[in-house]
Write a structure and sequence with these properties.
The chain is globular and about 75 Å long. It contains 17 helices and 26 strands. The longest helix is centred in the N-terminal third of the chain and has 20 residues. Helix 3 crosses helix 12 and helix 8 packs across helix 11. The strands form seven sheets. A nine-stranded mixed sheet has the order 3-10-11-19-16-15-14-12-13, with helices on both faces. The protein folds into three domains: about 300 residues, BirA Bifunctional Protein, domain 2 (2-Layer Sandwich), CATH 3.30.930.10; about 60 residues, Herpes Virus-1 (2-Layer Sandwich), CATH 3.30.40; about 100 residues, Rossmann fold. It is α+β, with helices and mostly antiparallel strands and about 500 residues long. The structure holds adenosine-5'-triphosphate (ATP).
Length: about 500
């Protein structure tokens, strides 16, 4: 059977030590992956690009790093203990457990977003859906909480119950007052957090798409409830000319395809609950395109009313057409004042802001762009993977590529090796990410670095000994040009900078 794109990526990533199953020598654990040197660097590059654009270059976004394990009360207040659940069915014969909505989607190829437990159970019964492995009968549907539970301290008493965070957002609400006061922040401002989240997914699958441990990059952006359309001109300027594919509620109701919209028309037509939500959606979309994700495989879909969280005024997903279908890459929600009010109630603390100009206390509203680093990596791998007759390669943007420059002495001769190592030192001194290799045929070395998307390779050959020039080979065109060694730093500074 022909290999799917997803299979090829899994195999290539394992072969090159990019990303591979955790505890692999024990057979692996579903939903957990380890990153080798190339994977770690790729992840770091994407994370740093996010940090650069959404924190460093923005005046009013403050980054925090919070605890991963938090006591039960936090998750009661947030609503996760009660409702962070998926619906589960189990095969009575082989005891495999399935996520009911996924099982229905796979069997009947219908959309199940927002269906209640009763509705899912009814679909399974009326269509007589059985275990896909052994055709066994399924148990009735039950709710399964996705949080990993643990205990703090040496006694497993209920008052010591705690959970690994399923999202980084909640700690932002807990730290809101302290950050706002410490940074003397006035509305609108955001608090960002990048870090691991944990979800005990019933059926992790599709490589990096549905994991049990993954990395969130989230911003809670606090706005005055009466100024949710007050996006400053200089920020709007950055997104106003974008054109995007939109799948609004009315289009979904008509089962119509996504339609192209200009940003300015989206605002005028009032399709989003507020301009700040629209701004964060567009700027997030634009960032994803700049990372290298194929815009022709992206659309922005509004949550239907029955799938929208009860506290959200509006919610949109930036979806990517993965090799296994259109799926959520990133979510952007208008969470209103729900979270701050819930934590104020459960903690008994004031989580409002005193606006001195108006002499009123208000609880800000929150716009939340929330993305998962691994889903971005998977979309990027799928967007940039190319097969050519003689080679397979990832066409990563040069500024995202895990390694930027490969350095190869043509032959394993001392005089070539010492120049090559010297060039490595010079380029490492400029913080370029270098991969040095002196073993094997030059053709194979090129293929190997193409497979991990290194945009440039320098080769040191006999002519170098005569005139201090080297060749620079471009990954995409495979063209080689000669440059003087003194020109290298300038060449790479120009070709590898963030754009
Ligand atoms: P889904 O409906 O696919 O389960 P979600 O709506 O629960 O996703 P959110 O809670 O909105 O996801 O989380 C925000 C982002 O975190 C998602 O857009 C995605 O990028 C990432 N994410 C969520 N769950 C996972 C997971 N199990 N594995 C990898 N990334 C995830």
């Amino acid at each position: 059977m022909a290999k799917t794109l997803s299979d090829k990526l899994v195999a290539l990533c394992a072969k090159r030590g990019v990303i591979f199953p955790s505890a692999e020598i024990y057979g692996g654990v579903a939903g957990f992956y380890d990153y080798g040197p190339v994977g770690v660097t790729l992840k770091n590059r994407i994370r740093e690009f996010w940090r650069s654009e959404f924190i460093i270059k923005m005046e009013n976004i403050y980054e925090i790093e919070s605890a991963i394990i938090l006591p039960r009360i936090v998750w009661e207040a947030s609503g996760h203990v009660e409702s962070f659940t998926d619906v589960l069915v189990e095969c009575k014969k082989c005891h495999t457990r399935f996520r009911a909505d996924h099982l229905i989607q796979d069997t009947l190829e219908i959309v199940t977003d927002g269906k209640t437990i009763e509705e899912l159970a009814e679909i399974i019964e009326t269509n007589n859906i059985r275990c896909p492995n052994c055709k066994g009968e399924l148990t009735s549907a039950s709710k399964f909480n996705l949080m990993f539970k643990t205990f703090i301290g040496a006694t497993e008493k209920s008052e010591n119950e705690a959970y690994l965070r399923p999202e980084t957002a909640q700690a932002i609400f807990l730290d809101f007052r302290r950050i706002q006061q410490a940074m003397r922040a006035s509305l609108p401002f955001g608090i960002a957090q990048i870090g691991r989240s944990y979800r005990n997914e019933i059926s992790p699958r599709n490589f990096l798409f549905r994991l049990r441990e993954f990395e969130h990059m989230e911003i809670e952006f606090f706005v005055h409830p009466a100024q949710k359309d007050a996006v400053p001109e200089d920020l709007w300027e950055k997104v106003k000319d974008l054109e995007v594919s939109i799948l609004s509620i009315p289009l979904q109701e008509k089962e119509a395809p996504a339609e192209r919209y200009k940003a300015t028309d989206l605002f005028k037509q009032g399709i989003f609950s507020c301009k700040w939500l629209l701004y964060w959606t567009l700027i997030s979309y634009d960032w994803l395109v700049r990372v290298g994700i194929d815009p022709t495989r992206m659309r922005i879909r509004q949550h239907m009313l029955n799938e929208r969280a009860h506290y959200a005024a509006d919610c949109w997903d930036i979806e990517f057409k993965y090799s296994f279908g259109w799926k959520e890459l990133q979510g952007i929600a208008d969470r209103t004042d729900y979270d701050l009010k819930r934590h104020a109630k459960y903690s008994g603390k004031n989580l409002n802001i005193h606006l001195t100009d108006e002499n009123v206390k208000i609880v800000p509203h929150v716009i939340e762009p929330s993305s998962g680093l691994e889903r971005i990596i998977q979309a990027l791998l799928e967007s940039t993977y190319i097969e050519e007759p003689e080679r397979a390669l990832f066409k990563f943007n040069p500024y995202i590529a895990p390694f930027q420059i490969a350095v190869f002495p043509l032959l394993r001769r001392d005089n070539l090796i010492s120049i090559a190592r010297n060039i490595c030192d010079i380029l490492r001194g400029e913080n370029f990410l270098i991969l040095y290799d002196e073993k094997g045929s030059i053709g194979r070395r090129y293929r190997r670095v193409d497979e991990i998307g290194v945009p440039f390779a320098i080769t040191i050959d006999h002519q170098t000994l005569e005139d201090n020039t080297v060749t620079i080979r471009a990954r995409d065109s495979m063209q080689q040009e000669r440059y003087a060694i003194q020109e290298l730093i300038d060449f790479f500074k120009t070709h590898l900078k963030f754009t």
